[in-house]
Amino acid sequence: MLEGRAVVRETDMPEETQAHVMELAYKSLDLYESSDCQSIAHHIKQSFDEAYGPSWHCVVGKDFGSCITHLRGSFIFFHVDMMAFLIFKDGKDFSESKEEAIGVRRKNGFDA
């Protein structure tokens, strides 16, 4: 595990969710080698999908850039030592039923 303290660079997540993702980051760093960024990211993504619903994305690495669109209240970018973590939720709420989606499209003039 990396020994450093998490340093948040940018976020719009509620504090409770921030604490959860950082806890998951530390647990992931205990479970996997720090060089196994894919497994660390997958573990965090799966945990967030289970806890908060689908469409979460997680990028973990030492040197990357990003330009993303995310749902309000679902973005965090932080570092633990040299490891960077980017977690965000994207897309629409998949709990909406197919019939509701069709109804919205028709109501807005997008009859499919």
UniProtKB/TrEMBL annotation:
A Pfam family recorded for this sequence: Dynein_light
Gene Ontology, cellular component aspect: cytoplasmic dynein complex; microtubule
Principal location class: cytoplasm
Location in the cell: Cytoplasm, Cytoskeleton
Entry superkingdom: Eukaryota
Keyword annotations: Cytoplasm, Cytoskeleton, Dynein, Microtubule, Motor protein
A single GO molecular function term of this UniProt record: dynein intermediate chain binding
Listed SUPFAM superfamilies: DLC (SSF54648)
Similarity comment text for this entry: Belongs to the dynein light chain family.
Annotated protein name in UniProt: Dynein light chain
Organism: Punica granatum (Pomegranate)
